[in-house]
Write a structure and sequence with these properties.
It is found in: Cytoplasm. This is Bifunctional chorismate mutase/prephenate dehydratase. Strand 13 and strand 14 form a beta hairpin. The chain starts with a helix and ends with a strand. The radius of gyration is 24 Å and the shape is globular. The protein has 12 helices and 15 strands. The protein folds into 3 domains: 92 residues, Chorismate mutase (Chorismate Mutase Domain, subunit A, Up-down Bundle), CATH 1.20.59; 84 residues, Periplasmic binding protein-like II (D-Maltodextrin-Binding Protein, domain 2, 3-Layer(aba) Sandwich); 91 residues, ACT domain (Alpha-Beta Plaits, 2-Layer Sandwich). The structure holds prephenic acid. Prephenic acid binds next to helix 1, helix 2 and helix 3. The site of prephenic acid has 12 residues, from helix 1, helix 2 and helix 3.
Length: 369
């Protein structure tokens, strides 16, 4: 079949456009390679200054990503562009030092998704069975960093994570916020009209409660240790479904029977990056503290008053029972700013005078992606 004139025009045009793309790809390839070689030089400079240097620099990564987002001319949106640069930096860092990251597993959990979002695909991610194991691995130096969930916008705080900080010297090096989309998943063998049992993590059941009440009021809800575990179980039972995310669906080859069944469309979870390093200022930081107050009237007011006076923006305040005495409480506080900012340092000085104990868990860049 011969091409009509207009087809010939457009195919010539297509050839030309593809040639342009080839040229651009050649340029991008050269530039990424130059960037990677530059990161290798950076590694040598770091090593020549300090043998025990840390290669991963959260504050610098946040600055790189923020700059790219600000410069982005489009048409790709800034988040998409930052994700591409995230992967380039991840590969550059892996040239300097392969980074090992433990996360609350098993494979396919939202925490793994958060770890990949933060560190990129070049990091080596290792699943742990429990939050305290993630802490232990980091403390023991078996991995460089850990990723644990800390709060969900629908379900609130993850107490296990807060409690683990009380007996540990671990620092917070970063945060990452993930939009959480839950799907109803089935296997090829599932009889879709006969679903009588649904597996999921208790938090996910809570986040999809209204949808389940409306669509599966009679199905048995079976809580399991993780969404990935729920996805695995579905493979073995013809009358069961699971609630889990994209990663678990992909990992276990399940089909999305209904997508995005979470009750709140803005459902998101915040994860913390834990490690052994103090992170310098990035220009847009947060700090987390744990504070024990003496058990006396007005203690909470006394604690918060310096924050107010120094105009420091609190982003979270949680109370947990202390482990050292009955009816003693500690406060977990997040606020905007870095502990080296003069205003924050002055405020902390005053809080230290009022509190029985203050521990700075870390100052770290606000989540960028
Ligand atoms: O600037 C550095 O310290 C680098 O090592 C380079 C680089 C990058 O690729 O931009 C890589 C890893 C660090 O975590 C931060 C940035």
């Amino acid at each position: 079949m011969s091409d009509s004139p207009s087809n010939t025009d457009s195919s010539n045009n297509l050839d030309e456009l593809r040639e342009t793309i080839d040229q651009l790809d050649t340029d991008i390839l050269r530039l990424i390679s130059e960037r990677a070689a530059c990161a290798q030089h950076v590694a040598n400079v770091k090593l020549s200054r300090d043998k025990g240097t840390v290669f991963y620099r959260p504050e610098r990564e946040a600055q790189v990503l923020r700059r790219i987002m600000a410069l982005n001319p489009g048409p790709l949106d800034s988040e998409e562009m930052a994700r591409l640069f995230r992967e380039i930096m991840s590969a550059c860092l892996a040239l300097e030092q392969p980074i090992k990251v433990s996360y609350l597993g098993p494979e396919g959990t939202f925490t793994q998704q958060a770890a990949l979002k933060h560190f990129g695909e070049s990091a080596i991610s290792l699943p742990m069975a429990a939050i305290d194991e993630v802490f232990r691995e980091v403390e023991a130096g078996a991995v460089n960093y850990g990723v644990v969930p800390v709060e969900n916008s629908t379900e609130g705080v993850v107490n296990h994570t807060l409690d683990s900080f009380m007996d540990s010297s671990i620092r917070i090096c970063g945060e990452v916020v993930l939009r959480i989309h839950h799907h109803l998943l089935v296997a090829d063998t599932t009889r879709r009209d006969k679903v009588s049992r649904i597996y999921s993590h208790p938090q996910s059941f809570a986040q999809c409660r209204k949808w389940l009440d409306a669509h599966f009021p009679h199905a048995e809800r079976v809580p399991v240790a993780s969404n990935a575990e729920a996805a695995k179980l579905v493979k073995t039972e013809w009358h069961s479904a699971a609630i889990a995310g994209d990663m678990a669906a992909k990992l276990y080859g399940l089909t999305l029977l209904t997508e995005k069944i979470e009750d709140r469309p803005d459902n998101s979870t915040r994860f913390l990056i834990i490690g052994n390093q103090d992170v310098p200022r990035s220009g847009d930081d947060k700090t987390s503290l744990v504070v024990a107050m003496r058990n006396q009237p007005g203690a909470l007011h006394d604690l918060l008053e310096p924050f107010h006076r120094h105009q420091i923006d609190l982003t979270r305040l949680e109370t947990r029972p202390s482990r050292s005495g009955v009816w003693n409480y500690v406060f977990f506080i997040d606020f905007k700013g870095h502990h080296e900012d003069p205003q924050v340092a002055a405020m902390l000085e005053e809080v230290r005078l009022r509190a029985a104990e203050v521990k700075v868990l870390g100052s770290y860049p606000q989540g960028v992606l």
